[in-house]
Amino acid sequence: MKINPLQLSVFLGALVLAATPALKPAPKSDFNYASFSRLPVLEGGRVKPIDSFARNTLLAIRSKQTVRVDGRSLSATQWLLDAAFKPEAADTYPAFVVDDPEVLGLLGLDQGKTRYFAYWQIESKRDEVQNQAAAADMVESTKRTRFQKALLNLNSRLILYERVKNTFMLSGQGDPAKDLAEFGALLPDAMAAFHAKKPTKKQLQTMKALSDMLQT
Fold first, then answer.
1. Where are the domains of the chain?
2. Beta-carbon neighbour count of residue 114 at 10 Å?
3. End-to-end distance of the chain based on CA atoms, in angstroms?
4. Burial zone of 74 (CB within 10 Å; 0-12 exposed, 13-18 middle, 19+ buried)
5. What SS3 state is found at 75?
6. Is the pTM value of this prediction over 0.85?
7. What pLDDT digit, counting tens, does each position of 37-77 carry?
């Protein structure tokens, strides 16, 4: 199953902002991950909990639905929030499986005792991975080498992760305060349209305006 987080950027950003007052801190945490994970999002034409989207996305990237960081296990929802709001931290999480010897050589990495690596360990070779993946994509699938297949797989996972990091970002280079004020003004009608069985023309126009504000 292919996951494209950009398909849900409008609704994910809107729902998070709209639900913020309801997300009261849990007794032993600064953030109520359980409540957040149940928020609905629209992805691929289907409404699903954020937790489902997060687990499917992390599974596609890491082949697991959790990631271990400093001896503790982060849930997919925690990982998603860090990737979206604290990318400098998420970039250090060992989220990428790299076990092909030639790909490891290209990245300048030693496999050693692990096959999981962080984005920051790959980032310096990102352009080279992109270029070689583009070349491999031009080769007929049945004629691709193991290295080319592994490189294409890694590149697709890197793209997915990079899109997750940009899910909540507003596009443009204007005044951030003005953009946020405009975003907040559009949000009520957009939320009403999301919940309405038959959105009005004005609500649909508002949803489009909100979508245009978000990076795609």
1. 5-169, 177-216
2. 12
3. 21
4. buried
5. strand
6. no
7. 777 776 667 777 888 889 999 999 999 999 999 889 999 99
